[in-house]
Design brief:
GDP_dissociation_inhibitor; FAD/NAD-bd_sf; alpha+beta; 14 helices; 8-stranded mixed β-sheet; signal; 573 residues; cytoplasm
Length: 573
Protein backbone atom coordinates (compact mmCIF):
# COMPACT_ATOMS: atom_id res chain seq x y z
CA UNK A 1 0.00 0.00 0.00
CA UNK A 2 1.18 3.53 -0.74
CA UNK A 3 -0.25 4.78 2.56
CA UNK A 4 2.43 5.43 5.17
CA UNK A 5 1.52 6.22 8.76
CA UNK A 6 3.82 7.01 11.70
CA UNK A 7 5.35 3.93 13.28
CA UNK A 8 5.10 5.40 16.80
CA UNK A 9 2.30 7.22 18.63
CA UNK A 10 1.37 7.89 22.24
CA UNK A 11 -2.34 7.42 21.57
CA UNK A 12 -3.96 5.36 18.82
CA UNK A 13 -7.71 5.84 18.36
CA UNK A 14 -10.71 5.03 16.21
CA UNK A 15 -13.31 7.67 15.37
CA UNK A 16 -16.44 8.61 17.34
CA UNK A 17 -17.54 11.51 19.56
CA UNK A 18 -15.80 10.32 22.74
CA UNK A 19 -12.70 9.29 20.79
CA UNK A 20 -12.58 12.63 18.96
CA UNK A 21 -12.78 14.54 22.25
CA UNK A 22 -10.05 12.34 23.75
CA UNK A 23 -7.87 12.89 20.68
CA UNK A 24 -8.28 16.67 20.88
CA UNK A 25 -7.57 16.69 24.62
CA UNK A 26 -4.43 14.53 24.24
CA UNK A 27 -3.06 16.47 21.27
CA UNK A 28 -3.68 19.72 23.13
CA UNK A 29 -1.36 18.65 25.98
CA UNK A 30 1.39 17.46 23.62
CA UNK A 31 0.63 13.77 23.12
CA UNK A 32 1.31 12.22 19.70
CA UNK A 33 -2.08 11.14 18.39
CA UNK A 34 -2.77 8.82 15.47
CA UNK A 35 -6.41 8.40 14.49
CA UNK A 36 -7.24 5.50 12.15
CA UNK A 37 -10.62 4.19 11.01
CA UNK A 38 -11.74 1.53 8.57
CA UNK A 39 -14.55 3.78 7.40
CA UNK A 40 -14.24 6.38 4.66
CA UNK A 41 -15.83 9.18 6.70
CA UNK A 42 -15.31 10.97 10.00
CA UNK A 43 -17.36 10.58 13.21
CA UNK A 44 -18.12 6.84 12.92
CA UNK A 45 -21.65 6.18 14.22
CA UNK A 46 -22.10 9.90 14.92
CA UNK A 47 -21.66 10.83 11.26
CA UNK A 48 -23.88 12.94 9.00
CA UNK A 49 -24.47 12.06 5.34
CA UNK A 50 -25.83 13.69 2.24
CA UNK A 51 -28.90 11.89 0.88
CA UNK A 52 -26.87 9.95 -1.67
CA UNK A 53 -24.25 9.24 0.98
CA UNK A 54 -26.93 7.80 3.25
CA UNK A 55 -28.14 5.50 0.46
CA UNK A 56 -24.56 4.24 0.11
CA UNK A 57 -24.31 3.79 3.88
CA UNK A 58 -27.54 1.75 3.81
CA UNK A 59 -26.11 -0.55 1.16
CA UNK A 60 -22.88 -0.96 3.13
CA UNK A 61 -24.63 -1.79 6.41
CA UNK A 62 -27.34 -4.20 5.33
CA UNK A 63 -25.22 -7.07 6.64
CA UNK A 64 -23.47 -5.15 9.44
CA UNK A 65 -24.11 -6.31 13.00
CA UNK A 66 -23.88 -2.80 14.47
CA UNK A 67 -26.79 -1.54 12.36
CA UNK A 68 -29.61 -4.00 11.76
CA UNK A 69 -33.13 -4.28 10.40
CA UNK A 70 -32.95 -1.63 7.72
CA UNK A 71 -36.11 -0.67 5.87
CA UNK A 72 -36.65 1.89 3.14
CA UNK A 73 -40.36 2.51 3.26
CA UNK A 74 -42.68 3.27 0.34
CA UNK A 75 -44.69 6.44 0.84
CA UNK A 76 -48.03 4.74 0.23
CA UNK A 77 -47.49 2.27 3.09
CA UNK A 78 -48.60 4.84 5.68
CA UNK A 79 -52.22 4.44 6.75
CA UNK A 80 -54.68 6.66 8.47
CA UNK A 81 -55.99 5.53 11.83
CA UNK A 82 -59.15 4.23 10.14
CA UNK A 83 -56.92 2.08 7.86
CA UNK A 84 -57.83 4.04 4.72
CA UNK A 85 -55.12 4.58 2.10
CA UNK A 86 -53.26 7.87 2.17
CA UNK A 87 -53.87 10.17 -0.79
CA UNK A 88 -51.57 9.09 -3.65
CA UNK A 89 -48.59 11.08 -4.82
CA UNK A 90 -48.61 13.92 -7.30
CA UNK A 91 -48.08 13.22 -10.99
CA UNK A 92 -44.35 13.85 -11.01
CA UNK A 93 -43.73 12.16 -7.66
CA UNK A 94 -42.24 8.73 -7.22
CA UNK A 95 -42.13 6.31 -4.35
CA UNK A 96 -39.34 4.07 -3.15
CA UNK A 97 -39.49 0.33 -3.29
CA UNK A 98 -37.88 -1.73 -0.55
CA UNK A 99 -34.55 -1.69 -2.41
CA UNK A 100 -34.50 2.09 -2.68
CA UNK A 101 -35.33 2.34 -6.41
CA UNK A 102 -38.15 4.62 -7.60
CA UNK A 103 -41.26 2.88 -8.80
CA UNK A 104 -44.69 3.74 -10.14
CA UNK A 105 -46.49 7.08 -10.55
CA UNK A 106 -50.06 7.97 -9.63
CA UNK A 107 -52.32 10.97 -10.10
CA UNK A 108 -53.12 13.14 -7.09
CA UNK A 109 -56.71 12.67 -6.05
CA UNK A 110 -58.95 15.68 -6.69
CA UNK A 111 -60.58 15.21 -3.29
CA UNK A 112 -57.69 16.97 -1.51
CA UNK A 113 -57.28 20.44 -3.04
CA UNK A 114 -55.31 21.70 -0.02
CA UNK A 115 -52.51 19.28 -0.82
CA UNK A 116 -52.41 20.31 -4.49
CA UNK A 117 -51.23 23.75 -3.41
CA UNK A 118 -48.06 22.31 -1.94
CA UNK A 119 -44.95 22.41 -4.06
CA UNK A 120 -44.47 18.92 -5.45
CA UNK A 121 -41.31 17.18 -4.29
CA UNK A 122 -40.35 14.06 -6.25
CA UNK A 123 -37.84 11.38 -5.38
CA UNK A 124 -35.85 12.46 -8.42
CA UNK A 125 -35.75 16.01 -7.03
CA UNK A 126 -34.53 14.74 -3.63
CA UNK A 127 -31.73 12.76 -5.29
CA UNK A 128 -30.79 15.73 -7.47
CA UNK A 129 -30.65 18.03 -4.43
CA UNK A 130 -29.09 15.32 -2.27
CA UNK A 131 -26.08 17.46 -1.32
CA UNK A 132 -28.40 19.85 0.50
CA UNK A 133 -29.20 17.11 3.03
CA UNK A 134 -27.08 16.38 6.09
CA UNK A 135 -28.69 13.36 7.73
CA UNK A 136 -27.43 12.28 11.16
CA UNK A 137 -27.14 8.64 12.12
CA UNK A 138 -27.85 9.57 15.73
CA UNK A 139 -30.37 12.22 16.78
CA UNK A 140 -29.47 14.40 19.75
CA UNK A 141 -29.77 17.98 20.92
CA UNK A 142 -27.39 20.02 23.04
CA UNK A 143 -28.53 21.21 26.47
CA UNK A 144 -27.33 24.81 26.69
CA UNK A 145 -25.93 24.05 30.15
CA UNK A 146 -24.88 20.51 29.35
CA UNK A 147 -21.38 19.05 29.46
CA UNK A 148 -20.91 19.25 25.68
CA UNK A 149 -21.70 22.97 25.42
CA UNK A 150 -19.53 23.71 28.46
CA UNK A 151 -16.66 21.79 26.85
CA UNK A 152 -17.07 23.57 23.51
CA UNK A 153 -16.82 26.91 25.30
CA UNK A 154 -13.93 25.94 27.58
CA UNK A 155 -11.81 24.41 24.81
CA UNK A 156 -12.60 27.17 22.30
CA UNK A 157 -13.70 24.48 19.84
CA UNK A 158 -17.03 26.29 19.45
CA UNK A 159 -15.41 28.61 16.88
CA UNK A 160 -15.39 25.73 14.38
CA UNK A 161 -19.21 25.47 14.24
CA UNK A 162 -22.44 27.47 14.31
CA UNK A 163 -25.62 26.68 16.17
CA UNK A 164 -29.32 27.45 16.12
CA UNK A 165 -31.81 27.49 18.96
CA UNK A 166 -34.49 24.83 19.07
CA UNK A 167 -37.48 27.10 18.61
CA UNK A 168 -40.25 25.10 20.29
CA UNK A 169 -41.07 22.00 22.33
CA UNK A 170 -44.16 20.04 21.32
CA UNK A 171 -45.98 17.01 22.64
CA UNK A 172 -48.57 14.57 21.32
CA UNK A 173 -51.62 14.49 23.58
CA UNK A 174 -55.22 13.43 23.06
CA UNK A 175 -54.69 12.83 19.35
CA UNK A 176 -53.08 16.16 18.49
CA UNK A 177 -49.75 17.97 18.64
CA UNK A 178 -49.56 20.82 21.16
CA UNK A 179 -46.90 23.31 22.21
CA UNK A 180 -45.46 22.76 25.69
CA UNK A 181 -45.23 25.80 28.00
CA UNK A 182 -41.83 25.54 29.65
CA UNK A 183 -40.52 29.07 30.23
CA UNK A 184 -42.25 31.67 32.39
CA UNK A 185 -43.43 33.56 29.30
CA UNK A 186 -44.78 30.35 27.75
CA UNK A 187 -46.65 29.38 30.91
CA UNK A 188 -48.45 32.68 31.35
CA UNK A 189 -49.09 33.01 27.61
CA UNK A 190 -50.46 29.50 27.18
CA UNK A 191 -54.03 29.04 26.05
CA UNK A 192 -53.96 25.36 26.97
CA UNK A 193 -53.75 26.01 30.74
CA UNK A 194 -56.21 27.60 33.12
CA UNK A 195 -55.14 30.39 35.47
CA UNK A 196 -55.03 27.93 38.38
CA UNK A 197 -52.90 25.49 36.36
CA UNK A 198 -50.45 28.25 35.46
CA UNK A 199 -49.93 29.07 39.14
CA UNK A 200 -49.58 25.41 40.08
CA UNK A 201 -47.03 24.80 37.33
CA UNK A 202 -44.92 27.84 38.18
CA UNK A 203 -44.90 26.88 41.87
CA UNK A 204 -43.81 23.32 41.06
CA UNK A 205 -41.09 24.39 38.60
CA UNK A 206 -39.76 26.92 41.10
CA UNK A 207 -39.45 24.12 43.65
CA UNK A 208 -37.64 21.88 41.14
CA UNK A 209 -34.97 24.52 40.49
CA UNK A 210 -33.54 24.06 43.99
CA UNK A 211 -35.27 20.90 45.18
CA UNK A 212 -32.14 19.82 47.12
CA UNK A 213 -32.84 22.66 49.57
CA UNK A 214 -36.24 21.17 50.43
CA UNK A 215 -35.73 17.44 51.07
CA UNK A 216 -38.81 17.31 53.26
CA UNK A 217 -40.93 17.79 50.14
CA UNK A 218 -39.85 14.51 48.52
CA UNK A 219 -38.18 12.37 51.19
CA UNK A 220 -41.25 10.12 51.45
CA UNK A 221 -40.96 9.39 47.71
CA UNK A 222 -37.27 8.48 47.40
CA UNK A 223 -38.22 4.85 46.70
CA UNK A 224 -41.36 5.69 44.76
CA UNK A 225 -41.91 6.83 41.19
CA UNK A 226 -41.79 10.38 39.91
CA UNK A 227 -45.28 9.84 38.51
CA UNK A 228 -46.62 9.20 42.03
CA UNK A 229 -44.80 12.30 43.28
CA UNK A 230 -46.49 14.44 40.62
CA UNK A 231 -49.89 13.05 41.56
CA UNK A 232 -49.19 13.69 45.25
CA UNK A 233 -48.47 17.34 44.43
CA UNK A 234 -52.02 17.60 43.12
CA UNK A 235 -50.96 18.54 39.60
CA UNK A 236 -53.69 18.20 37.00
CA UNK A 237 -53.48 15.63 34.20
CA UNK A 238 -52.38 18.39 31.80
CA UNK A 239 -49.50 19.41 34.05
CA UNK A 240 -48.49 15.83 34.83
CA UNK A 241 -48.23 15.13 31.10
CA UNK A 242 -46.17 18.25 30.35
CA UNK A 243 -43.76 17.73 33.27
CA UNK A 244 -43.27 13.98 32.90
CA UNK A 245 -43.03 13.64 29.13
CA UNK A 246 -41.80 17.01 27.85
CA UNK A 247 -39.78 18.63 30.65
CA UNK A 248 -38.30 15.78 32.70
CA UNK A 249 -38.65 13.42 29.70
CA UNK A 250 -38.53 10.29 31.84
CA UNK A 251 -40.70 7.13 32.04
CA UNK A 252 -43.42 6.87 34.66
CA UNK A 253 -41.49 4.35 36.75
CA UNK A 254 -38.44 6.65 37.13
CA UNK A 255 -37.46 7.28 40.75
CA UNK A 256 -38.49 10.64 42.13
CA UNK A 257 -34.99 12.05 42.65
CA UNK A 258 -33.97 11.18 39.10
CA UNK A 259 -37.12 12.86 37.78
CA UNK A 260 -36.38 15.97 39.83
CA UNK A 261 -32.78 16.07 38.56
CA UNK A 262 -33.97 15.82 34.96
CA UNK A 263 -36.50 18.60 35.50
CA UNK A 264 -33.86 20.79 37.15
CA UNK A 265 -31.40 20.20 34.28
CA UNK A 266 -34.07 21.27 31.78
CA UNK A 267 -34.98 24.41 33.75
CA UNK A 268 -31.39 25.51 34.33
CA UNK A 269 -30.72 25.34 30.59
CA UNK A 270 -33.64 27.66 29.80
CA UNK A 271 -32.86 31.19 28.70
CA UNK A 272 -29.12 30.86 28.16
CA UNK A 273 -29.34 31.17 24.38
CA UNK A 274 -33.07 31.21 23.69
CA UNK A 275 -36.56 30.34 24.85
CA UNK A 276 -35.85 26.60 25.01
CA UNK A 277 -32.97 24.72 26.67
CA UNK A 278 -31.59 23.26 23.44
CA UNK A 279 -29.19 24.06 20.61
CA UNK A 280 -28.65 22.26 17.32
CA UNK A 281 -25.46 22.52 15.22
CA UNK A 282 -25.88 23.79 11.66
CA UNK A 283 -25.09 21.02 9.13
CA UNK A 284 -26.00 18.36 11.69
CA UNK A 285 -24.67 16.66 14.77
CA UNK A 286 -21.85 15.07 12.76
CA UNK A 287 -20.14 18.47 12.81
CA UNK A 288 -19.31 18.16 16.52
CA UNK A 289 -16.86 15.21 16.31
CA UNK A 290 -15.27 16.87 13.28
CA UNK A 291 -14.75 20.07 15.28
CA UNK A 292 -12.73 18.15 17.86
CA UNK A 293 -10.90 16.30 15.07
CA UNK A 294 -9.87 19.65 13.63
CA UNK A 295 -8.55 20.81 16.99
CA UNK A 296 -6.56 17.58 17.27
CA UNK A 297 -5.12 18.09 13.78
CA UNK A 298 -4.12 21.67 14.58
CA UNK A 299 -2.02 20.35 17.46
CA UNK A 300 -0.33 17.64 15.44
CA UNK A 301 -2.78 14.74 15.30
CA UNK A 302 -2.75 12.58 12.15
CA UNK A 303 -5.89 11.06 10.61
CA UNK A 304 -6.03 8.09 8.29
CA UNK A 305 -9.39 6.85 7.00
CA UNK A 306 -9.98 3.51 5.23
CA UNK A 307 -7.22 2.15 7.45
CA UNK A 308 -7.67 -0.11 10.44
CA UNK A 309 -5.99 -2.28 13.04
CA UNK A 310 -5.68 -6.00 12.38
CA UNK A 311 -4.30 -7.25 15.69
CA UNK A 312 -2.59 -6.20 18.94
CA UNK A 313 1.00 -6.95 19.98
CA UNK A 314 1.18 -7.70 23.72
CA UNK A 315 4.13 -7.56 26.06
CA UNK A 316 4.73 -11.05 27.50
CA UNK A 317 5.62 -9.85 30.97
CA UNK A 318 3.11 -7.05 31.62
CA UNK A 319 0.34 -8.18 29.28
CA UNK A 320 -0.05 -4.62 28.05
CA UNK A 321 -0.49 -3.62 24.42
CA UNK A 322 2.82 -2.28 23.13
CA UNK A 323 2.00 -2.09 19.41
CA UNK A 324 -0.61 -2.88 16.78
CA UNK A 325 -0.41 -4.35 13.31
CA UNK A 326 -2.51 -2.46 10.77
CA UNK A 327 -4.28 -3.88 7.73
CA UNK A 328 -1.21 -3.12 5.60
CA UNK A 329 1.02 -5.19 7.87
CA UNK A 330 2.78 -2.19 9.37
CA UNK A 331 3.70 -2.28 13.06
CA UNK A 332 2.72 0.86 15.00
CA UNK A 333 4.08 1.19 18.53
CA UNK A 334 1.71 2.88 20.99
CA UNK A 335 1.45 3.45 24.71
CA UNK A 336 -2.37 3.47 24.71
CA UNK A 337 -5.05 2.23 22.33
CA UNK A 338 -8.56 3.70 22.42
CA UNK A 339 -11.09 1.64 20.49
CA UNK A 340 -14.81 1.81 19.76
CA UNK A 341 -16.97 -1.01 21.13
CA UNK A 342 -18.01 -2.05 17.63
CA UNK A 343 -14.44 -3.16 16.87
CA UNK A 344 -14.27 -5.62 19.78
CA UNK A 345 -14.67 -9.28 18.83
CA UNK A 346 -17.27 -11.40 20.58
CA UNK A 347 -14.63 -13.67 22.15
CA UNK A 348 -13.18 -10.63 23.93
CA UNK A 349 -16.48 -9.80 25.59
CA UNK A 350 -17.26 -11.34 28.96
CA UNK A 351 -21.03 -11.60 29.00
CA UNK A 352 -21.56 -8.04 27.77
CA UNK A 353 -25.21 -7.56 26.87
CA UNK A 354 -26.19 -4.71 24.61
CA UNK A 355 -29.37 -2.76 24.41
CA UNK A 356 -30.54 -1.33 21.11
CA UNK A 357 -31.90 1.98 19.86
CA UNK A 358 -34.71 2.20 17.33
CA UNK A 359 -34.22 4.96 14.77
CA UNK A 360 -36.15 6.33 11.83
CA UNK A 361 -35.39 9.20 9.48
CA UNK A 362 -38.19 10.81 7.49
CA UNK A 363 -38.21 13.44 4.79
CA UNK A 364 -41.55 15.25 4.95
CA UNK A 365 -43.24 18.14 3.15
CA UNK A 366 -44.59 20.15 6.08
CA UNK A 367 -44.46 21.03 9.78
CA UNK A 368 -46.18 18.86 12.39
CA UNK A 369 -47.64 22.00 13.97
CA UNK A 370 -48.19 24.95 11.65
CA UNK A 371 -46.85 28.36 12.66
CA UNK A 372 -46.29 31.80 11.19
CA UNK A 373 -42.71 30.87 10.33
CA UNK A 374 -41.89 27.81 8.26
CA UNK A 375 -38.36 27.76 9.70
CA UNK A 376 -38.92 25.89 12.96
CA UNK A 377 -36.73 23.45 14.85
CA UNK A 378 -38.98 21.37 17.06
CA UNK A 379 -38.56 18.72 19.73
CA UNK A 380 -41.66 16.51 19.90
CA UNK A 381 -42.32 13.99 22.67
CA UNK A 382 -44.80 11.17 22.12
CA UNK A 383 -45.79 9.20 25.26
CA UNK A 384 -46.23 5.42 24.97
CA UNK A 385 -49.22 4.79 22.72
CA UNK A 386 -50.04 1.56 24.55
CA UNK A 387 -48.83 -0.24 27.71
CA UNK A 388 -45.32 -1.63 27.25
CA UNK A 389 -44.55 0.54 24.24
CA UNK A 390 -41.61 2.97 24.46
CA UNK A 391 -41.94 6.75 24.53
CA UNK A 392 -40.73 8.22 21.24
CA UNK A 393 -38.74 11.41 20.69
CA UNK A 394 -38.92 13.35 17.42
CA UNK A 395 -36.62 16.14 16.28
CA UNK A 396 -38.04 18.09 13.34
CA UNK A 397 -35.48 20.14 11.38
CA UNK A 398 -36.10 22.85 8.79
CA UNK A 399 -33.95 23.89 5.83
CA UNK A 400 -32.27 26.76 7.71
CA UNK A 401 -30.31 24.14 9.68
CA UNK A 402 -28.69 23.10 6.37
CA UNK A 403 -29.88 19.53 6.90
CA UNK A 404 -32.54 19.39 4.17
CA UNK A 405 -33.51 21.12 0.95
CA UNK A 406 -35.99 24.05 0.95
CA UNK A 407 -39.60 22.86 0.91
CA UNK A 408 -38.83 19.75 2.95
CA UNK A 409 -38.29 18.87 6.61
CA UNK A 410 -36.05 16.24 8.16
CA UNK A 411 -37.63 14.30 11.04
CA UNK A 412 -35.60 12.03 13.32
CA UNK A 413 -37.39 9.50 15.54
CA UNK A 414 -35.62 7.76 18.43
CA UNK A 415 -36.58 5.41 21.25
CA UNK A 416 -35.09 2.52 23.24
CA UNK A 417 -35.79 -0.68 21.32
CA UNK A 418 -38.46 -3.09 22.45
CA UNK A 419 -38.61 -4.72 19.01
CA UNK A 420 -37.49 -3.78 15.53
CA UNK A 421 -37.28 -0.11 14.62
CA UNK A 422 -40.26 -0.49 12.31
CA UNK A 423 -42.39 -2.11 15.02
CA UNK A 424 -41.44 0.54 17.58
CA UNK A 425 -41.78 3.65 15.43
CA UNK A 426 -44.26 3.08 12.63
CA UNK A 427 -47.32 3.41 14.94
CA UNK A 428 -46.12 6.93 15.79
CA UNK A 429 -45.40 7.76 12.13
CA UNK A 430 -48.86 6.51 11.13
CA UNK A 431 -50.55 8.82 13.65
CA UNK A 432 -48.56 11.97 12.97
CA UNK A 433 -48.00 11.79 9.22
CA UNK A 434 -51.28 11.19 7.41
CA UNK A 435 -53.29 12.90 4.69
CA UNK A 436 -56.27 15.07 5.75
CA UNK A 437 -59.45 13.14 6.48
CA UNK A 438 -61.51 15.54 4.39
CA UNK A 439 -61.00 18.32 1.89
CA UNK A 440 -61.87 21.03 4.38
CA UNK A 441 -59.45 19.90 7.04
CA UNK A 442 -55.92 21.21 7.48
CA UNK A 443 -53.50 18.66 6.06
CA UNK A 444 -50.82 16.97 8.11
CA UNK A 445 -47.38 16.50 6.56
CA UNK A 446 -46.78 13.71 4.06
CA UNK A 447 -43.78 11.40 4.23
CA UNK A 448 -41.73 11.59 1.04
CA UNK A 449 -39.08 9.06 2.12
CA UNK A 450 -38.32 7.02 5.23
CA UNK A 451 -35.75 4.60 6.59
CA UNK A 452 -35.86 2.53 9.80
CA UNK A 453 -32.86 0.96 11.52
CA UNK A 454 -31.66 -0.31 14.89
CA UNK A 455 -28.36 0.75 16.46
CA UNK A 456 -26.52 -1.07 19.22
CA UNK A 457 -26.29 0.78 22.55
CA UNK A 458 -23.26 -0.39 24.53
CA UNK A 459 -23.27 2.37 27.14
CA UNK A 460 -24.33 -0.01 29.94
CA UNK A 461 -21.14 -2.10 29.59
CA UNK A 462 -18.20 -1.27 31.86
CA UNK A 463 -14.46 -1.96 31.64
CA UNK A 464 -14.75 -5.30 33.42
CA UNK A 465 -16.92 -6.63 30.63
CA UNK A 466 -14.01 -6.88 28.17
CA UNK A 467 -11.06 -9.25 28.17
CA UNK A 468 -8.47 -6.69 27.05
CA UNK A 469 -5.07 -5.35 28.19
CA UNK A 470 -5.12 -2.56 30.76
CA UNK A 471 -3.96 0.12 28.31
CA UNK A 472 -6.70 -0.67 25.76
CA UNK A 473 -9.65 1.61 26.48
CA UNK A 474 -13.13 0.94 25.07
CA UNK A 475 -15.53 3.76 24.16
CA UNK A 476 -19.21 3.06 23.71
CA UNK A 477 -21.24 4.38 20.81
CA UNK A 478 -24.32 6.63 20.97
CA UNK A 479 -27.04 6.04 23.53
CA UNK A 480 -30.78 6.77 23.42
CA UNK A 481 -30.58 9.88 25.62
CA UNK A 482 -31.36 13.31 24.22
CA UNK A 483 -28.07 14.86 25.35
CA UNK A 484 -24.43 13.77 25.01
CA UNK A 485 -23.37 13.90 28.66
CA UNK A 486 -22.49 10.19 28.79
CA UNK A 487 -20.02 10.51 25.90
CA UNK A 488 -18.32 13.56 27.44
CA UNK A 489 -18.04 11.89 30.87
CA UNK A 490 -16.54 8.83 29.19
CA UNK A 491 -14.00 11.01 27.36
CA UNK A 492 -13.04 12.69 30.63
CA UNK A 493 -12.66 9.33 32.39
CA UNK A 494 -10.44 7.85 29.66
CA UNK A 495 -8.34 11.02 29.44
CA UNK A 496 -7.62 10.85 33.20
CA UNK A 497 -6.18 7.36 32.63
CA UNK A 498 -4.08 8.53 29.67
CA UNK A 499 -2.78 11.79 31.17
CA UNK A 500 -3.67 11.89 34.88
CA UNK A 501 -1.70 15.07 35.63
CA UNK A 502 -2.87 17.14 32.65
CA UNK A 503 -5.83 19.49 32.30
CA UNK A 504 -8.70 18.16 30.20
CA UNK A 505 -9.15 20.24 27.02
CA UNK A 506 -7.56 23.54 28.09
CA UNK A 507 -8.53 26.55 25.96
CA UNK A 508 -6.91 26.52 22.54
CA UNK A 509 -5.22 29.72 21.34
CA UNK A 510 -6.55 31.55 18.34
CA UNK A 511 -5.22 30.20 15.00
CA UNK A 512 -3.12 33.29 14.34
CA UNK A 513 -1.30 32.75 17.65
CA UNK A 514 -0.16 29.17 16.84
CA UNK A 515 3.51 28.83 15.86
CA UNK A 516 4.53 25.53 14.26
CA UNK A 517 7.95 24.03 14.95
CA UNK A 518 9.90 24.40 11.71
CA UNK A 519 12.10 21.35 12.28
CA UNK A 520 9.16 19.09 13.20
CA UNK A 521 9.78 18.07 16.78
CA UNK A 522 6.84 15.68 17.01
CA UNK A 523 6.68 12.01 16.17
CA UNK A 524 8.04 11.06 12.76
CA UNK A 525 10.10 14.16 12.07
CA UNK A 526 8.11 16.90 10.36
CA UNK A 527 5.27 14.53 9.54
CA UNK A 528 3.05 15.47 12.46
CA UNK A 529 3.44 19.23 11.91
CA UNK A 530 3.01 19.01 8.16
CA UNK A 531 -0.04 16.82 8.55
CA UNK A 532 -1.51 19.28 11.04
CA UNK A 533 -1.00 22.21 8.65
CA UNK A 534 -2.44 20.21 5.76
CA UNK A 535 -5.43 19.18 7.88
CA UNK A 536 -6.02 22.77 8.99
CA UNK A 537 -5.80 24.04 5.40
CA UNK A 538 -8.23 21.39 4.17
CA UNK A 539 -10.62 22.15 7.03
CA UNK A 540 -10.49 25.88 6.24
CA UNK A 541 -11.25 25.21 2.58
CA UNK A 542 -14.16 22.97 3.56
CA UNK A 543 -15.49 25.64 5.91
CA UNK A 544 -15.27 28.32 3.19
CA UNK A 545 -17.10 25.98 0.81
CA UNK A 546 -19.85 25.43 3.38
CA UNK A 547 -20.21 29.17 4.01
CA UNK A 548 -20.54 29.79 0.28
CA UNK A 549 -23.13 27.03 -0.04
CA UNK A 550 -25.02 28.39 2.98
CA UNK A 551 -25.21 31.84 1.42
CA UNK A 552 -26.57 30.33 -1.78
CA UNK A 553 -29.16 28.26 0.05
CA UNK A 554 -30.45 30.96 2.37
CA UNK A 555 -32.21 32.93 -0.37
CA UNK A 556 -34.85 30.36 -1.43
CA UNK A 557 -35.92 29.58 2.13
CA UNK A 558 -39.38 31.03 2.68
CA UNK A 559 -39.75 32.63 6.07
CA UNK A 560 -43.05 33.88 7.45
CA UNK A 561 -43.78 37.18 9.17
CA UNK A 562 -41.59 36.18 12.11
CA UNK A 563 -37.99 36.14 10.82
CA UNK A 564 -35.82 33.21 11.82
CA UNK A 565 -33.12 34.17 14.38
CA UNK A 566 -29.48 34.05 13.31
CA UNK A 567 -27.24 31.18 14.45
CA UNK A 568 -26.55 31.36 18.18
CA UNK A 569 -22.84 31.76 18.93
CA UNK A 570 -21.49 29.75 21.85
CA UNK A 571 -19.88 31.99 24.43
CA UNK A 572 -20.08 32.52 28.14
CA UNK A 573 -22.65 34.98 29.27
Amino acid sequence: SWISVPSTADILLHLGLSESVIAAACARVGQRVLHVDRRSYYAANWASFTFNGLLSWIDDNKVCTYFTLLFITPVNSFKQQDQEECAPLAEDQQILSSDGEPQGEEQLSGSAPTQAKKKKISYTKIVKEGRRFNIDLVSKLMYSRGLLVDLLIKSNVSRYAEFKNVSRILTYRQGKVEQVPCSRADVFGSKELTVVEKRMLMKFLTFCLDYEQHPEEYQDFTERSFWEFLQNNMLTENLQHFVLHSIAMVPRETHTEEGLRSTQHFLRSLGRYGNTPFLFPIYGLGEIPQCFCRMCAVFGGIYCLRHSVQCLVLDKESGRCKAVIDTCGQRISCSHFVVEDGYIREEQRKGVEHKHISRAVLITDGLLLQSESEQQISLVTVPPLEPGAPAVRLVELCSSTMTCMPGTYLVHLTCPSSGSAREDLQPVVSRLFTKPASAGEEGTPAVLWAVYFNMRDSTAADRSGYDLPGNVHVCSGPDAALGSDHSIRLAQEVFRQLAPHEEFCPPAPNPEDIVYDGDGGQGEGAGFSEAAQAEEGAAEEAEESKEKEASQESSPVEVGEMPDPPPAPLAEE
